[in-house]
């Protein structure tokens, strides 16, 4: 979920059990719709610095993401810290159910860079097309 929807969901769903321990963070977008490529360099840098700070402060064991562009700086920071032996963190990527024939840009970046330890797709044909992807069925 993005932005305010994530914060509203936390209140709307009366989380119970281990889920009650979760924390939601808003990460600045790397690029707004229609934003120029030149200025997106600066907003992307801001997003990367914020994500690195967040990963450093929270020290997650696992990051589960589902595709929006904001996941790339977060995954990059978690991956970098893992490779530098600062903090081991697994990345699980779940491709959108809307992606039936090709991966999203975020999916392509995480798949080809091998940042995601687990790469899940929701369509069998994608799992056949991308060998390291695992078919997970429909995840709701």
Automatic annotation (TrEMBL):
Organism superkingdom: Eukaryota
Family: Belongs to the ALG14 family.
Keywords: Endoplasmic reticulum, Membrane, Transmembrane, Transmembrane helix
Membrane topology classification: Single-pass membrane protein
GO MF annotation terms: N-acetylglucosaminyldiphosphodolichol N-acetylglucosaminyltransferase activity
Compartment(s) of residence: Endoplasmic reticulum membrane
GO cellular component: UDP-N-acetylglucosamine transferase complex
Name of the protein this chain belongs to: UDP-N-acetylglucosamine transferase subunit ALG14
Pfam families: Alg14 (PF08660)
Gene Ontology terms: biological process: dolichol-linked oligosaccharide biosynthetic process
Cited Gene3D superfamilies: Glycogen Phosphorylase B
């Amino acid at each position: 979920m993005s932005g305010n929807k994530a914060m509203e969901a936390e209140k709307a769903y009366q989380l119970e059990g281990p889920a009650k321990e979760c924390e939601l963070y808003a990460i600045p977008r790397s690029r707004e719709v229609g934003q120029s490529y030149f200025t997106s360099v600066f907003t992307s840098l801001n997003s990367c610095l914020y994500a690195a700070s967040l990963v450093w402060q929270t020290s997650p064991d696992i990051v589960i993401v589902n595709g929006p562009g904001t996941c790339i700086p977060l995954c990059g920071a978690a991956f970098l810290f893992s490779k530098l032996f600062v903090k081991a963190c697994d990345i699980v990527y779940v491709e959108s159910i809307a992606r039936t024939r090709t991966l999203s840009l975020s999916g392509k970046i995480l798949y080809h860079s091998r940042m995601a330890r687990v790469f899940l797709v929701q369509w069998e044909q994608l799992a056949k097309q991308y060998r390291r992807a695992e078919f997970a069925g429909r995840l709701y």
